[in-house]
Amino acid sequence: MMLNALLVATGAFVLLLLLRPRVRGNRTWRATVTPLASIIGSGFLVLAPILLREFGAHAVTAMTALCLVGYGVGSAIRCNIRALDARGGRLRRREDLLDAAASTALAFAYLVSVCYYLNLFGAFAVGLAAPGATWPGRVVTTLTLAGIGLLGWWRGLDGLEAAETVTVSLKLAVIAALLVGMGDYAALLSLNGGLAANPAHLDAHGLRIACGLLITVQGFETSRYLEEKYDAATRIASMRLAQWWASAIYVVYVGLAVAVFDVADVGTEETAIIGMTASIAAILPYMLVAAALAAQFSAAAADTNGCGGLVRDLTHARVSARLTYVGLVTACIALTWAADIYAIISYASRAFAFYYALQCALATRLSIADQRHPLRSITYAALTLGMIAVLVLGLPVE
What we know:
The chain has helices at 2-18, 21-24, 27-39, 43-55, 59-86, 93-125, 135-191, 204-212, 232-260, 272-277, 284-314, 321-336, 341-370, 374-393. By secondary structure, it is an all-alpha fold. The two termini are 37 Å apart.
């Protein structure tokens, strides 16, 4: 009972802190909310069970590697933001074609990722009441998609951003409580000599699964497409802050999961984390469902937001962001009823890998033209090849 009370108090404290007017009104924080909402949309829900099954004690190393690759790609996109800002939003013809191709790939990637987030939303919404059932979750997903489309059409970017701010605050509050609970449980197991002894393993299949998990650190690129409201410096800072916070949360979370959960007890369903945390504190599964709903809603709203700005930018404002919101959710509803969640993860990872490969190629070209940072050019070229490898080699989780 004392641990349950501590976890509720921790969550309440963090939530009240983040919802303070001074925090909510901070311009940098408001700009950071969109990429942070997208990055932590799904990772803390599905990552620990998957990485434990595939890597055992090496799960922390795999998670760290994913975060480092994501940060490298984020650096390439930040390079492109600076270049576009310095050139007044104009690129040379070949660079512009490369950027347009990347943007087209990202539009599809956003469609798939929004569908993915809200399918997880539906699965977690009915996870406790109807475990194993598929269609009730899809119904919830469909209704939520319709709600986001209506909100985007009615209130535009400001409406989606306001929704993100509240749900991201709730999500971070529950994550704080979860980490405190897992840390307390790990300390208790350590004192009793009962920390999980998960054997480390690494093979080609696991590496290909890791490639397919690229989407779990995706989302930072949304900062680039918020130029309607934020200048280049603010968008660059927001992307960097979002990646720092998300990486810290992911690595600590997966590290604690390796210490307290036995891989033999890890389930294969997307809601496995609910049952895994029940052994820590009775309140955690219910808090986690609330966080799951907030996480997926905020991530879906963030990517819907980013997609609206992207299409507006790609079509030179001929297609409005509001119209894009409606078209996006309509396509997502169709995909929801045509594919399962893990297949959607694989599709989205490949789509984002293609986008990242093109963005890294653009950053390589711009860096070479700059002639001041040869090492940076080599790094971006290597990341381009790495994203192509992810596109080709990534496997869906079975």
